[in-house]
Amino acid sequence: MTTSAPTGDLVPSSSEAGWRSYLVDLWKAPPKARAAVAGCLLLVLVSPSGLSAMTTFIVPAFAKDTGTAKAAGILVFVTLPLLVGPVVLPFAGRWVDRLGARRVAVPATVLYAALTALVPLCGSSTPLLTVVLVLASVFGFMASLGVVFKVVSTWLPQHKGIGFALIGVVSSLASAVLSPLFQWLIDGGAGLGWKGTYLLVAAVIALVAIPTAVFLVSEPGEPHTAERETALPALPGIPLRKAIPTRVWITIAISLAFAAAGPMAVRQNAVDFFGERGFDEPTVSLALSALFAASVVGLLVGGMVLDRTDRPWVVVPMLGAVPAGLAIALANHGSTPLLFVAMILLGFATGAESALGPFLIARYFGLASFAQLQGLTLAISTLFLGVAPVVVSAAETATGSYTAPVLILTALTVVGAVLAAVLPKFPPPWRTENTPDHNRPAGMTT
User: For a Cys staple, 371 with which of 93, 132, 238, 397, CB 3.0–4.6 Å?
Assistant: First the structure.
């Protein structure tokens, strides 16, 4: 018989219903919980996701410096790291579930910083540069997304929705704030170029991520010194091998993958797609800003709503905003207000979906294999994120129009929303004060 994690240090669950109690309880989080969540946000800030704005300016500078085509630069700096990096997440999740968050985060952050520092030293060797960038992405995702969702789930069992939302908010705001900074560093007044910027970023990762992993990242019941190291207490939940074949997990994975693909395909092809519909580039740029702003709102609203509901149907309007936004974008020809409506819907759904995945996994399957399940689900969604824009662009090249590929994409997102609508009732909450054997919910359909 195994025991669950102790609850003395967790954020308390309110005995009263209502938003005020929910927010007060979150505010009363114990110091260890606050430190752990702050550490998670710092890890996300310097993660590949948080630093993604850098590649927009790195690629042109790299192409100019080496004489490489921009398309090849995008493949090396963006596509391959994005496709390969998240593949490690299910394995990272397994290690986190077995060893603990800190034991995974510390070596991963060290390797992430070291490999990032090696990037400018690869010279003009594109194959070597590709390998180093992919490995840096692998360890960067392992140190951040492979760790933070599990830490938030264990420290904030009653507030995990808003905790997951904060992770997405940090990533979104980092992209917005750091974009002009990276432009200034690479080809602006700082004059560091792409190589100097990579060295600076590596130093920042080392100075921020490594101490964060050592001193802030933790889980309830986790020892804080090497002399006291023992096995982490088991958490309640369903084992990975039993969760994956269930209709519930398959439905969640498919719904989130389809929902993620829609907004990303539109974002990456926005200038040409909306140009085909009569919009100039400055207008499209403003509409994209509206999308990013709406994603922050979607993250916060979605996270709080998920924390306060026991009804799976609330997932449907969140995912349903994607086909609604795509349909408006597809039918719109020249109406600026409708353009912004479409982008706000897509942005809101993007934000809500970021908190939705880990919330549903924790709610249906508990925490025993949470990091592994979340890593696998996120890897599948990321694969769709990377492939959808390329497929839509290729289809436009073949057909001469974005209408057919976006129409197909809209249909797929409708399927995702319909699948979410048939999710079963949430099982009883996983009570961390009891053993997993006393927490197993009935009715999980295989």
Answer: 93
What is the model's pLDDT at position 439? 40
Residue with tokens 């498919």: 254
Q: How remote is the C-alpha of 193 from its chain's centroid?
A: 29
Residue reference for tokens 């084992």:
239
Buried b (16+ CB within 10 A) or exposed e, 94-108: bbbbeebbbbbbbeb
pLDDT digits (tens, 9 = 90+) for 31-79: 888 889 899 999 999 999 888 878 878 888 888 888 887 767 877 887 7
Helix (H/G/I), strand (E/B), else coil: 237 = strand
Residue ranges of alpha helices (H) inside 144-220 are: 145-155, 160-187, 193-215
> Locate tokens 């042109």: which residue?
60
Label each residue of 346-394 as H, E or C.
HHHHHHHHHHHHHHHHHHHHECCCHHHHHHHHHHHHHHHHHHHHHHHHH
CA distance 138 to 39: 20
The encoded tokens of residue 213 equal 């992993």
Q: What is the b/e burial string over 379-395, where b = at least 16 CB atoms within 10 angstroms of the residue's CB? A: bbbbbbbbbbbeebbeb
On whether the CB atoms of residues 30 and 218 are closer than 8 A, the answer is no
On the CB side of 138, how many CA atoms lie within 13 Å of its CA? 15
Q: Residue for token digits 């360890």? A: 139
Could you tell me the two tokens for 292?
């990013």
Asked whether the beta carbons of 353 and 318 are under 8 A apart, the reply is yes
**Structure tokens given for 132:** 């180093």
Q: Which of 297-301, 379-383, 430-434 has the highest mean pLDDT?
A: 379-383
How far is it, in rounded angstroms, from Cα 204 to Cα 340?
A: 36
Q: What are phi and psi of 211, to 5 degrees?
A: -60, -35
Alpha-carbon torsion (252, 151, 427, 296), positive or negative? negative
* Per-residue model confidence as pLDDT tens digits over 170-216: 877 787 678 778 888 988 778 899 999 999 999 999 999 999 999 99
Q: Are 179 and 173 in contact (CB under 8 A)?
A: no
